């Protein structure tokens, strides 16, 4: 994140919103997070499942994982806020020949702990690391060679590493989540990996408490308290207070324990948000009402936030289509952003208390990212 004098006040900053859809990317810009100007589609007819706004240098870098039905998947970047784009010839992410597979999709792009480090999660379930801000990536062999890998099955949306959570202090410590497979963590920079699923239930197995194999939909942690983690499971909402060594259910008080995203407030580790759906067999909001559910006490109690959200509403919100911005770092309330599979996008500039529509009738929204730039 930039801390230069040019970026210390609202009057010289604006919010940027990246909206990845099944048919391209839209970029939103706003100087007050209530009125938005949208540009798009970029990468028309390319599916965009992963986006990233890396603000660690003076000039932010935008990263996008695109999927062309003709050319295949690619990571593309921009250093001028989306005016022009670059890509690595032949693809920035490639499996080695001895892996016996090819890249199908980029599901996650996440800034790492070290300067210029970026992590990528892919389908098939694998992890890649970049040390040049996402221009080229190296294969994390330790996760691929894990003895459990042959038993990781495909979820409804595929078999992928969809979540990467780098430790904010220790660059050797990284947590990933996959569907299916569960949560895994490395303490040595990716050489070895251990499952961390104790307390997460997999109701679809004969033994519902397996060591691995859970269908974890999303994991999030707080940057100031990395030991505090939250997980939205395929039926189940959990909290960990020990960095994922064990998990406790926090689903009591929610209308449903099924959903895809889970979001931690960027400045308050006890504040967490989910967007519940009825069930895996009924993927619509309970009561056909778009509602974000918030807990301010780490999941002990929940309240619904829906002012400005539509009713009725029948769309699902995917695992990366609900995110927070970094506005509290600049003395502003956190902004929240969510997009539905009906092509609607909503934003809140007051931490979810009220919502306003940013866009409608876009293609399926698969991911959103927002930051102050």
Sum this structure up briefly.
The protein has 373 residues and is an all-beta fold. It has a single domain, classed as Methylamine Dehydrogenase, Chain H (7 Propeller). The protein has one helix at 141-144; strands spanning 15-21, 24-30, 37-42, 47-54, 61-68, 72-78, 86-87, 105-111, 118-123, 126-130, 138-139, 160-166, 174-179, 182-186, 194-195, 216-222, 225-233, 236-240, 248-249, 258-264, 272-277, 292-295, 303-305, 322-324, 336-339, 345-348, 356-359, 365-372.
Class by alpha and beta content = mainly beta
CATH topology: Methylamine Dehydrogenase, Chain H
Integer-rounded radius of gyration: 19 Å
Q: How many angstroms separate the termini? A: 9 Å
CATH superfamily: YVTN repeat-like/Quinoprotein amine dehydrogenase
Q: What is the number of domains?
A: 1
Oligomer: single chain
Residue stretches low in confidence (pLDDT < 50, at least 5 long) are 1-11
Annotation, overall tally of beta strands? 28
Series of secondary-structure elements, N-terminal to C-terminal: EEEEEEEEEEEHEEEEEEEEEEEEEEEEE
Number of H/I helices: 1
Outline type: globular
How many strands, which pairing sense, and closed or not: the largest β-sheet?
4 strands, antiparallel
Helix proportion of residues, in percent? under 10%
How big a fraction of the residues is strand? 35-45%
Query: What is the overall pLDDT average?
Result: 94
């Amino acid at each position: 994140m930039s801390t230069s004098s040019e970026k210390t006040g609202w009057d010289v900053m604006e919010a940027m919103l990246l909206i990845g859809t099944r048919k391209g990317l839209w970029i939103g810009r706003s100087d007050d997070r209530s009125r938005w100007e949208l540009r798009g589609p970029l990468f028309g007819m390319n599916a965009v499942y992963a986006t990233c706004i890396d603000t660690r240098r003076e000039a932010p870098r935008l990263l996008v994982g695109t999927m062309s039905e003709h050319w295949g998947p690619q990571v593309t970047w921009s250093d001028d806020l989306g005016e022009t784009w670059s890509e690595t010839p032949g693809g920035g992410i490639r499996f080695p020949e001895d892996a016996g597979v090819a890249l199908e999709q980029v599901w996650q792009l996440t800034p790492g702990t070290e300067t210029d480090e970026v992590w990528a999660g892919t389908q098939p379930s694998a992890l890649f690391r970049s040390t040049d801000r996402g221009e080229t990536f190296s294969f994390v062999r330790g996760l691929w060679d894990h003895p459990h890998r042959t038993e990781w099955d495909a979820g409804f949306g595929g078999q992928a590493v969809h979540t990467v959570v780098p430790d904010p202090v220790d660059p050797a410590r990284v947590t990933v989540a996959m569907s299916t497979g569960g949560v895994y963590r490395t303490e040595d920079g990716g050489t070895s990996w251990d499952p961390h699923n104790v307390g997460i239930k997999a109701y679809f197995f004969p033994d519902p408490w397996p060591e691995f194999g859970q269908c974890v939909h999303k994991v999030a942690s707080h940057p100031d308290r990395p030991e505090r983690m939250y997980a939205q499971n395929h039926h189940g909402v959990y909290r960990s207070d020990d960095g994922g060594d064990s998990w406790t259910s926090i689903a009591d008080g929610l209308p449903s324990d099924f959903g895809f995203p889970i979001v931690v407030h960027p400045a308050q580790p006890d504040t967490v948000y989910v967007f519940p759906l009825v069930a895996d067999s009924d993927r619509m909001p309970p009561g056909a009402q778009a509602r974000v559910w918030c807990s301010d006490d780490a999941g002990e109690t929940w309240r619904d936030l829906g002012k400005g959200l539509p009713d009725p509403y029948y769309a699902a919100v995917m695992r990366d289509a609900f995110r927070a911005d970094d506005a509290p770092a600049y003395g502003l309330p956190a902004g929240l952003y969510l997009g539905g599979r009906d092509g609607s996008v909503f934003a809140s500039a007051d931490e979810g208390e009220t919502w306003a529509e940013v866009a409608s009738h876009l293609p399926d929204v698969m991911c959103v990212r927002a930051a102050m730039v």
